[in-house]
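Annex B. Sample input.
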Amino acid sequence: MNTAAHDAHAIATGYIAVWNETDAARRAALIDAGWTADARYVDPMAQASGHEQINALVGAVHQRYPGFRFHLLGKAEAHGDNLRFSWTLGPSGADDLIQGTDFAQVDAGKLRMVTGFLDKVPVGA
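Annex B, continued. Sample output.
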């Protein structure tokens, strides 16, 4: 695995860990370790700027979808300072209900900007 591919996998895995962390303090530490101070996140349903807003957004997803888990889907890919990876979301031990693809800009190995696209969303989700 080349360095860019290894970094892509590590960054995407860290990103998924943030979304799966239910404890706000542990999640804040993960965000601090993997995101730039001025990081931004945007998808069709939400946006957040900075560590506190990103942490609050992830917490809100846990409240809306309790017990759901994110998983990487396929392989993360890097091109320069850009990263692309897909993910699934669903209840633990059940079929995934939601799928998405995220595009990220990375600065010195940390996420600076993440733009999320929802590829599959069931009605009412």
